[in-house]
Amino acid sequence: MIRLPKKLLFAVEAVLDIAYNAGTQPVQSKEITARQGIPRRYLEQVLQQLVRAGILSGIRGPRGGYLLARERRRITLGDITRVISALDANGEDAKEEAGVVPESDLGVKIVRPIWDDMQDRLVERLDSVTIEELCLKAKEAGIDSEAAARLDFVI
């Protein structure tokens, strides 16, 4: 079975956590770590990349944190995947793996085209799944949202 990169899973969980729990107030990374169990060393790097990509917006200050930069129906899993893939492509692991790609005829003419086709289909599927859909599934599954507790009714 093909395993998804941890950073990608953490990124999707973090964006979904923010979408599901933010309400009108930003979500702090320590809250995401507490709820999702994502190690902070991964989380901070991933959140900053998502801010740079325009998926999240970062709010500075003692009550700061992260909010979605656009509507959750306009953020897809494909968007998040591309950000994390670009982050991984610049890392040392990607450079090491790039050096061990076989260049045989079977690899180049047979295996790689099949793999590329599967990746294209996966990206198409990821582009069709929005954060809004995942939030609705979380609600249907009975997962509590802290957004309700964050509502401020003061006028």
Compose a concise summary of this entry.
The chain is mainly α. Helices cover 61% and strands 5% of the residues.
Structural notes for this entry:
The structure is a single chain. With 155 residues, the chain is mostly helical. It has a single domain, classed as Arc Repressor Mutant, subunit A (Orthogonal Bundle). The protein is built from eight helices and two strands; from the N terminus they run αααββααααα. The chain has helices at 6-21, 29-36, 40-52, 77-89, 92-98, 105-127, 131-140, 147-150, and strands at residues 56-59, 65-68. A two-stranded antiparallel sheet has the order 1-2. β1 and β2 (65-68) form a beta hairpin. α1 (6-21) packs across α3 (40-52), α1 packs across α4 (77-89) and α1 packs across α7 (131-140). The protein starts with 5 loop residues before the first helix and ends in a 5-residue tail after the last helix.
Summary tags:
155 residues; mainly alpha; Arc Repressor Mutant, subunit A; two-stranded antiparallel sheet; 8 helices
Sheet with most strands: 2 strands, antiparallel
Beta-strand level of the residues, as a percent range? 5-15%
Computed over alpha carbons, the radius of gyration is 18 Å
**How does the helix and strand content classify structurally?**
mainly alpha
**Average of per-residue pLDDT values:** 87
Separate helix tally: 8
**CATH topology annotation:** Arc Repressor Mutant, subunit A
Low-confidence parts: none
Could you name the CATH class?
A: Mainly Alpha
Instruction: List the secondary-structure elements in sequence, H or E.
Output: HHHEEHHHHH
Q: State the CATH architecture.
A: Orthogonal Bundle
Total individual domains:
1
